[in-house]
């Protein structure tokens, strides 16, 4: 019984923390929600920190894509797309942490910076190409989902 109460309290606190966290960062429309690291992945305690970061990155990329393809005359101000230093997180499988992986991470961050500065479809597709380049060699599982992000500019 005691354990159950503690679990409920913890869960309540966790959900409240997630909600207040997203409220702080989300602009009027709620668009920024997917930008938050309090994504669905974070609610599964078993995911390795890098996997959780990746889920947040995938959510962010989806939000980014939606903003870029939306009507520029009616869309809200561009949300801040936070950099995610995922390569510093512990992965499920530590054998991915080879030099080539860090080089690909660097190329990803460079593309992320560029699309943040100039949010065009071309720059977004270049970012997705960086996701794909790393996933082809280090984690092919989510490639289908990642491929779907391409705007096709
Ligand atoms: C430099 C390499 C690299 C880049 C760049 C990269 N990923 Fe990943 N990604 C990985 C690795 C490695 C994993 C496995 C992480 C783990 O399980 O700890 C992963 C896991 C994932 C997952 C599965 C997470 C889960 O639920 O287990 C998704 C989805 C994902 N990446 C999407 C993306 C998207 C979208 C981008 C680009 C916006 C991206 N990744 C960029 C290496 C990369």
Write a concise keyword list for the protein shown above.
single chain; mainly alpha; binds heme C; 153 residues
What does this protein structure show overall?
It contains 5 helices and no strands. The chain is mostly helical and 153 residues long. It has one domain. The longest helix has 24 residues, at 2-25. The structure holds heme C.
Write the layout of secondary structure elements.
Layout: H1 2-25, H2 49-69, H3 99-117, H4 121-138, H5 143-147
Helix pairs in contact: 3-4
How would you briefly describe this protein structure?
The protein is mainly alpha-helical and 153 residues long. The chain contains five helices and no strands.
Number of helices: 5
Largest sheet: none
Give the rounded overall mean pLDDT. Answer: 80
Indicate how many domains the architecture comprises.
1
Count of β-strands:
0
Large-scale geometry? globular
Low-confidence stretches: 5-42
Percentage of residues in helical conformation: 55-70%
């Amino acid at each position: 019984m005691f354990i159950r109460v503690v679990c409920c309290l913890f869960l309540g606190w966790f959900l409240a923390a997630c909600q207040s966290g997203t409220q702080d960062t989300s602009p009027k429309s709620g668009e920024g929600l997917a930008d938050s690291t309090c994504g669905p992945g974070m609610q599964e305690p078993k995911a390795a920190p890098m996997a959780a970061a990746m889920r947040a990155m995938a959510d962010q990329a989806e939000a980014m894509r939606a903003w870029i393809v939306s009507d520029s005359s009616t869309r809200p101000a561009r949300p801040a797309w936070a950099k995610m230093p995922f390569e510093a997180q512990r992965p499920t499988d530590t054998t991915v942490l080879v030099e080539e992986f860090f080089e690909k991470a660097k190329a990803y961050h460079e593309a992320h910076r560029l699309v943040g500065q100039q949010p065009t479809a071309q720059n977004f597709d270049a970012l997705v190409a960086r996701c794909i380049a790393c996933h082809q060699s280090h984690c092919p599982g989510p490639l289908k989902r990642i491929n779907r992000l391409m705007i096709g500019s």
